[in-house]
């Protein structure tokens, strides 16, 4: 049907009217859009004000200044730049970080440009005020900054509390110590870490006895990290703690001498804590002296002995006694031998026959024969804590402890990855000792496949049961080797009713 002129004119008039009506709505729409923009801007202002107000009631803002300052101080122990960075967060943090103790950990990198090194040292010293100083000096290559920077630090030597020198070569360490000629009456700890060893025949650290007035100061502890053992004559005779971490960077894994460790022990009569550690990636063997050229001698003040390394290191136990020893920790850093450590068992037995005051015995990644265990237990009349990690100790050995004449004051057992033990023998042990003058008060059980949830519930009727690592300094916590969150979650889900009854004695 053809559209007539009249119809065409009518439609066009209607279209024009509709378009005019639509155009008429642009004004109200614009006003509404402006209103929306204004509301959105107002909304953003409200949210911004709410965010600012929320920031005023955060935990960090509610913490007392002294507590927040203590957090910053502890952080600065491992992160020296902490006070400088947190001061830029807000005024409250700036106030807390202004406490002098937060600036007491001073890190000086001598390889940095001279002006930067000096300015940083002066700035930290100024902020630390008159409090004790914990110094970390790092040097990786030859630099002209040593003399000027060390002179600035030495002007405050009376405030030095700890000193840590990190260097590539022993020559750098000696260069620093030779400049340290002023006494440090507050200095209690010195650590030296050398990442590479010089090919020069003379590689000892000079100045540990003479620099900084070590012999007349209150120096108590030295920690050395390097490829070689120190000579006894290089160490201050009044040391009470010595920690040796022995590395192996050259790949040759040259055997070390037990004789060297014995000389160190013999020349440090005041030593109360002695640690020797060979990390897994740096394991080296030890060669022991023959019985004809070395006699057993006493370490009169030694109270704690910790040996970590190849099992040949444990031969050290043959050659000295420690009548006052209270803690003995042995740890193997090599792959499992697949059989009991016969030589380690014999060395332990020989040592404990003349050092019978041990209160804490820890064996990590070490198996000794059942017969050796049975011979050792009667020697541990003062034992309070027994700690075993990745041991194949059997039910037979633990059953012997039901006799309260063995280890009569034993109060804590810590077993981890001990797959041969069953929960039944542990239950009989704690039950047998429950009525004794010294019952088993704590038992830590981690990843022991022979101990069931039912066993743990039974144990909790007599003792405190720990199924997780709670000590932040515990090596297992650091390594994450004993963390089993799925197990504790399943235990909590399956034994929820019993946990409500024994919740005070089961720690997940």
Concise description?
By secondary structure, the chain is α/β, with parallel strands linked by helices. It has helices spanning 5-24, 26-55, 59-62, 65-76, 82-86, 91-97, 114-128, 146-154, 170-179, 258-267, 342-352, 370-376, 395-400, 423-433, 453-459, 475-479, 485-494, 496-502; strands at residues 105-109, 133-139, 160-167, 189-194, 221-226, 241-246, 256-257, 273-277, 286-287, 297-298, 304-309, 320-321, 327-332, 360-364, 385-389, 412-416, 442-446, 464-466, 506-507.
Give the number of helices. Answer: 18
Oligomer description: single chain
Q: Mean pLDDT, rounded to whole units? A: 84
Alpha-beta classification: alpha/beta
| Biggest beta-sheet profile | 15 strands, parallel
DSSP summary, beta strand count: 19
